[in-house]
User: Fold Diacylglycerol kinase family protein from Collinsella aerofaciens.
Amino acid sequence: MIPGSNKDHPSFLKSFSYAMEGFVTAVKTERNIKVMLVAGVCTVIAGCIVELDIAEWATVIICCGLVIHGELCNTAMEAIVDLATQELHPLAKRAKDIAAASVYVLSITAAIVGLLVFAHALDFI
Assistant:
């Protein structure tokens, strides 16, 4: 597709299939996506066990979604950097490290929110 034009713009369903293809590719090729998905499934199972209320579920689902989103963005940014340069350039390293740090910060934040939600659900706070 030519940038800025509607020529050969894929249909909504085709765009959706591209997104699913990207997600499947990430799951197949990226270890951290698998780890985040397993953590999300474990969190959902734990939420079922402790019977989270609707607000707690919303909070947990938003956090899980944000962490997966962050990891997908990090993976895409790493691929773009790899496409732009094959050499070990300090700016390429910096871009990749900062993208990874953003997922790290988001994951720590989600873990803290998760601890608060589950502590509240178990009447610890």
